[in-house]
Amino acid sequence: MMRIARRHAGIVLAGAVALTLAACGSGSTGGGGGTAGSDGGSTDGAGGSAGGGEKVTLRWAMSADSQAEVDVWNHLADMVTEAYPEIEVTFESTPYREYYNKLTAQAASNDLACIAGLQAQRVSDVGSLFVDLAPYFEQTGFDIADYSESIVEGLTSDGAQLAVPYDFGPFVVYVNKDLFDAAGLEQPQPGWTFEEFIAAAEALTKDGTYGWAVNGSPDAWLGWALSVGGVYMADGEPTLTDPGVVDGFGREVSLVTEYGVAQAPDASGQAGGASDLWRNGRAAMYIDGPWQLINARTTVDFEVGLTTLPSVDGTSITTMSGTGFGITSSCKNPDEAWKAISVIIGPEAQQYIADAGRGFPAYTAAQESWYETAGVDGAREAIETALETVDPYPTPAGWQQVSALLVQYSTEAFSGARTPAQVLELVQQQAG
């Protein structure tokens, strides 16, 4: 377990913007000749880097699950051209559940975008597709220390900084406040217990509505395991049969099989089903990260609240996630790509992200604005409390496959066809 150091250094945004743009506008380290290729940027002219006056078009790949998200990314792409008129960024969106499969497929066909999003939990699987950004930090005076340390570390591999983070955050509980009010229940506060959670979920389960929305993904239930001392990884390998992991997964399953406060997922694993049930008003609570705020604000017609994962015997440990942007190894205009990234994750862009509520910004100076503009009841207290004991959630190689198998076979546990221990043993065997 690792505590996240939250730095609130006094940074003057305007000065930081000027420093970043001035530094990134200094001499290009590559160049030599303009290229036109499917694996990165392309120039409109016969040759030369963007610094030589040639127009460069860079492809930027990132996941997006709503038009609101696409609008945010397109706005940041436009900001790049405003800062560097010789660079145009074209944004390519893919739904999150398909994004990383598409990324690996594009790599296999030599069709990677020049700039790509990278989630911390995917570093072990696709980190080899990205280059180390540290040389650019040194050449341009970029200060990575202005970004929250935990997610910066999460986007490294073997000492290489593969991406600069734009957002991060702990998994917290999303609450439908209207359903709580209708049931005459007090809004859950950070620090509430598992027993209080069960009592509220039972009171909220009626008339076709459930207190909780379950999810077979470890992102949703691993916090239960960590809170009871579970160890899901050792020596770079998954340890799914650890007693604490069995206990944690069993708690999620018991919400369906024992307490009856959640609906069992269908045979497909109901990918995305938990958030859908919550958004449709059919579940009062579910677990997710702060990055879902923009979707919640634009797709629900009830008041949203946030709180922490309930504690088990006085302990509440949740996991975290975060994403950044890096340069792919096949990019033929890496210097221009770095200039673009320096804008996309720069102070002005992070302020825009905070104001838009897209996600909890990794740039520490913008975090205060996110709290002020989020408009989510209890957001500050829930996130700050969760960050005090958050686990950084490192993952072993192949975790993407492990997660998919857990979602696939979890339906057998939720239906009672197998015990939680049997499902975890099955996945452990296949993962091994």
From TrEMBL:
Q: Which UniProt keywords apply?
A: Signal, Transport
Which Pfam families does the record associate with it?
SBP_bac_1
Where is it mainly found? other
Task: Please list where the region (Disordered) is annotated.
Answer: 30-51
Does the UniProt entry include the keyword Signal?
yes
Q: Which residues form the signal peptide?
A: 1-22
Q: Which GO terms describe its cellular component?
A: cell envelope
InterPro entries attached to this UniProt entry: Bact_solute-bd_prot1, SBP
Concerning PROSITE patterns, the annotation shows: PROKAR_LIPOPROTEIN (PS51257)
Report the locations given in the UniProt record.
Answer: Cell envelope
Domain of life of the source: Bacteria
Q: Does the keyword DNA damage apply?
A: no
Q: Which family does it belong to?
A: Belongs to the bacterial solute-binding protein 1 family.
Q: What is this protein called?
A: Carbohydrate ABC transporter substrate-binding protein (CUT1 family)
Species whose genome carries this gene: Salana multivorans
